[in-house]
Give the backbone structure.
Amino acid sequence: MQQLTSQALEHMIPQQTKTSIMIIGGAEDKVHGREILQTFVHRAGASNANLAIIPSASREPAVQGERYQKIFEEMGATSIEVFDIRERHHCEDPKWHAFLETCTGVFMTGGDQLRLYSLLADTLLMEKIRTGARQGRMALAGTSAGAAVMGHHMIAGGGSGESPNRSLVDMATGLDIVPELVVDQHFHNRNRMARLVSAVAAHPDKVGIGIDEDTCALFEAQGLLRVVGKGCVTIVDTHEMSYTNLVNAGATDPLSVFNLRVHILSYGDQYNFHSRRPSSAPSV
Amino acid sequence: MQQLTSQALEHMIPQQTKTSIMIIGGAEDKVHGREILQTFVHRAGASNANLAIIPSASREPAVQGERYQKIFEEMGATSIEVFDIRERHHCEDPKWHAFLETCTGVFMTGGDQLRLYSLLADTLLMEKIRTGARQGRMALAGTSAGAAVMGHHMIAGGGSGESPNRSLVDMATGLDIVPELVVDQHFHNRNRMARLVSAVAAHPDKVGIGIDEDTCALFEAQGLLRVVGKGCVTIVDTHEMSYTNLVNAGATDPLSVFNLRVHILSYGDQYNFHSRRPSSAPSV
């Protein structure tokens, strides 16, 4: 009976309000096919979408906000608000809270993830967005810094070109939208495998997810990810991790990390966070 | 009875003639502790060593040969020959074949692995060295290009900063000293994870091994590796690989590669190629 009710409900939910959390690796195509941004607008309701753009990670929020507004308008969206939050108290603006009542999609731009976090964390505005996205009432997309903030733990910065080590990655707290993830972006483009490994070794209860540029990890349903875009999504799964020297290692000592399971996913591939299994894109 | 004989034989083999194949990730310390080079000289017999240096990968073989000769002399070795092979027919020089009769250690320098391969492949000289090393009659070390040639398949070149893809790595044939490996060097230093993944996806019967600078994968016994030096040795094990799109992917299409098992090893950690299991450094 429970199941019947769920199925009945599923049929009542229109396509555009299914869960659509989009974690984008930065540098998404804004000129040609624009598949990732198109997907966002489509999932938010296309010409019926009410879109909010949060450019607060950027040092040029007005420029970034306008840029995405123009793109989304070209895609047919007519109702767009730029939430130009530059101080924490801006999050209390009743105008934006009113807009969120009927908002169908929120887009967080790139910039500095620490800036984005410090402006939005623990605000009622953010709580409404998180809840709306999780319940499938709105699509939520974040690119680059907007992607980095998705997890409970966040990679705030780090390096490359070194053996994995504790000081290779700076961890901070994220906006907790998909708590089970540690997200890294511009992933293969900026050679970030060693820093993601260093991050998950310290947080083995999380799953590391590295997203390449112009690539999106699209969470369509609870715990199910599908790849959209030009590059790879890399899953670093620690649940079989049998050993790390991390606790005893000095800050720059090379790490030992045994039994990581790594999946490289490309276009159309899926990953199920419950079964921890990837599946390949259906052949056309 | 077989076992007793093996055990008896083991006791008869002096320390310095145990298998010692040393695969070095390049840029090994030549000034301070020089642990990796010390290990090589020690395993080749220290002051009783008869050492051959093969600088043929280098464009400046005389300079490289002299450099290592000086270092090994400072470590107490007195009998050292530089096999300055610049043409394939140099491999037939009877002087060097005579030296190999009592040689206890061969060191291959860095440079260009394709040059090293083209000078040594399929020569009687190389066959004698390979056999001597495998049978434990001599230590064999290779650094950088000298490490790259160790497998049956060799990474001849490639790139970084991209999603794994077929064109990210140029494969060639190696000197087949440890056939089951695909070796990459300067590994984390030059961000080569994506190229090693691209390489092993195409050769899933091999094990990928990425060796950082000033780091050595020391094969002490058949199928057993121990880490010496300052960085990490990364094992990319494909034996559980369940899917790759490699065969159907275009040259620059991003790859899908599911179920890689990855181990990051640091100083003193071991890896057993038979059981495919890592073990941590014994605590001191």
